[in-house]
Specification:
This protein is mainly alpha-helical. It is 70% helix and 5% strand. Strand 1 and strand 2 form a beta hairpin.
């Protein structure tokens, strides 16, 4: 089980994919700054409007109208910026998801068959589709809420500090309880999100295998065992998903509880100071608005952290695929025509380190001879073809064609000399003649 915390290395690597879209990200950041600034200015204008109406016969209608117009203006501009930010953020995340899938597809084309044979197709598809979607959604939340949340918190603290030090200190002293609560729950949820992504990959692989092999499943009466296998994996997925959802859902109500305590404390302290004439009624309303605004980003950020936990778990699976070692590069050998002499010299090979398959096997086939390789299932017939075609390379010994070690030839040059008919029937779009050819 992986360490139950956000992986900064994975997140930093994920942000590398945002670099090509840094202009859009900068525009989004500027929009976030304006939205946060508007959210900070509106309570101040509201407080001044209240002070302009405080006391009998002291209402200044002109000032009130001015403040109301300014509030409407900032609210309208904030809405426009929020819409523009949402458009840009969606474009960035969709582009990052597209780039990741392009890179994964290109990387799969370079992976050795040993990797593809050892990883179910459904699991690879799950990493390319479900995991990329999840991490892009986490990235979208990060752009949309994390930036505005951080700016709002810092701006709110700055203005509150300028208005009254005592109330600000009360807010700051109570804030760590909210942060500790969110951080504690987030650490607990990561392992469940990691397990959820892993089990989802196994379930996708199982479904893919059973659907593709329906003829074989029915021919051998495997239906009940297939259903039992699926039920077991599905039950496991349901269990880890329930745990991940349950623990992640605790974050928001827990931080809301702490934030409500902060709001109540600010309200009580501000009311006492207003009674002492230390602050005005309008300033008290500003503090109450800021106490609410100050708490809200923590709720949003706690939700973002939960999504980032899920995104980080999926990103680890995606990068694990991207980090898989590519096929060994071909030597710079020119294409050449081989006469047909093939010799295997003391060849040994195994797919798994602890399970020998072919040991010290030698064979010489002269040009023009026909040789049939026969034997029971699992004796190495297909493996021998894989070695001749260099789908795999031998562990020891050598395979030579016309006296040349085939590892010194490029795969294209080698395979151009073979005619190969697979067990499976593959038809391409075209004429019967083209398919036979």
């Amino acid at each position: 089980m992986k360490k139950p915390s956000l992986n900064p290395r994975v997140l930093r690597r994920l942000l590398q994919y945002v670099k090509p879209y840094r202009r859009e990200a900068l525009f989004s950041l500027l929009c976030a700054l304006f939205v946060s600034a508007a959210a900070l200015v509106i309570p101040v204008l509201s407080g001044q409007a209240i002070d302009a109406m405080a006391g009998p016969g002291q209402t200044d209608a002109a000032r009130v109208h001015t403040y109301l117009l300014l509030i409407l203006l900032f609210a309208a501009l904030s809405a426009i910026c929020q819409q523009a930010m949402a458009v840009k953020n969606n474009r960035i995340t969709c582009s990052v998801a597209r780039d990741l899938r392009d890179e994964i597809t290109a990387h799969i084309m370079r992976l050795p068959l040993s990797y593809l044979d050892g990883h179910p197709t459904g699991d690879l598809v799950s990493r390319m589709v479900s995991d990329v979607d999840t991490l892009s959604n986490g990235l979208l939340l990060g752009f949309t809420q994390l930036m505005t949340g951080v700016v709002t918190i810092l701006g709110t603290l700055g203005i509150m500090l300028a208005l009254d030090l005592r109330i600000t200190l009360a807010v700051v002293l109570l804030t760590p309880f909210s942060l500790f609560t969110a951080s504690f729950i987030a650490r607990k949820t990561h392992r469940y999100f990691t397990a959820q992504a892993e089990v989802l990959g196994r379930e996708t692989a199982l479904i893919n295998e059973m659907v593709e092999g329906q003829k074989v499943v029915r021919a051998f009466g495997y239906e009940k065992r297939a259903l039992a296998d699926f039920d077991a994996v599905n039950e496991e997925l349901g269990t880890v998903t329930l745990k991940a959802t349950f623990f992640s859902s605790l974050t928001n109500p827990s931080t809301r509880l702490v934030n409500n305590v902060i709001y109540a404390a600010v309200a009580f302290l501000a009311a006492m100071l207003a009674l002492e004439k230390s602050i005005t009624v309008g300033e008290m309303s500003v503090f109450l608005s800021y106490a609410s605004q100050y708490a809200k980003p923590f709720n949003e950020i706690s939700g973002v952290v939960t999504e980032l936990e899920n995104a980080s778990a999926c990103a680890e699976r995606v990068f694990e695929l991207l980090d898989a070692e590519s096929e060994t590069p071909d030597p710079n050998a020119e294409s050449r025509s081989l006469s047909g002499l093939v010799e295997l010299k003391d060849v040994s090979f195994r797919y798994e380190a602890d399970r020998p398959l072919i040991t010290h096997f030698s064979l010489r086939v002269e040009q023009g001879r026909r040789v049939a390789i026969v034997g029971p299932t699992g004796c190495g017939k297909t493996t021998l073809i894989n070695l001749l075609m260099r789908f795999y390379d031998v562990d020891s010994g050598a395979i030579e064609a016309d006296g040349i070690d085939i590892r010194t030839l490029s795969r294209h040059a080698l395979r151009a000399n073979y005619g190969m008919v697979l067990q499976e029937t593959w038809l391409r779009s075209g004429t019967i003649r083209e398919n036979i050819a």
